[in-house]
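Q: What residues go here?
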């Protein structure tokens, strides 16, 4: 793996994060959504940087006192399967407030790569969210107890 560093996202990173989001997802979040998470005191927004370029990001949002949602995680295509996603996920979970005991996420039912990634990191399928995505695809609800 290249030399990478995980750090808090800054407003200067948002253009690169938004480009990465558009390259990674069929229904990407827009820049204003990322700006909201960046400015929210209940969100943790981290980026992974290599050679001055954002190669991945993760956003978690704390929901109440004891749970959080993994909102989004993405890694550039040239840095996938090199440990960047794992590094980001571990940093995000370590960055949550101490009272958080459970992290939930939704993932497209057809995204076997992501489902396997989350399963490898201790997330378990807890149910299905019918029609979660704009095209009507179902999502799996996955959770991890911390």
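A:
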């Amino acid at each position: 793996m290249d030399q990478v560093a995980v750090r808090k996202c800054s407003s200067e990173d948002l253009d690169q994060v938004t480009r990465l989001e558009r390259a990674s997802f069929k229904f990407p979040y827009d820049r204003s959504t990322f700006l909201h998470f960046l400015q929210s005191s209940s969100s943790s927004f981290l980026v992974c940087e290599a050679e001055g370029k954002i190669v991945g990001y993760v956003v978690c949002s704390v929901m109440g006192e004891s749970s959080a949602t993994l909102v989004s995680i993405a890694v550039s295509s040239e840095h996938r399967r090199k440990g960047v996603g794992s590094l980001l996920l571990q940093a995000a979970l370590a960055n949550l407030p101490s009272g958080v005991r459970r992290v939930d996420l939704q993932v497209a039912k057809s995204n076997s790569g992501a489902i396997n990634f989350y399963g490898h990191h201790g997330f378990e399928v807890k149910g299905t969210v019918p029609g979660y995505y704009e095209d009507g695809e179902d999502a799996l609800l996955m959770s991890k107890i911390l």
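A: Context that may help when evaluating the design: The first helix runs from residue 14 to 24. The mean pLDDT is 93.
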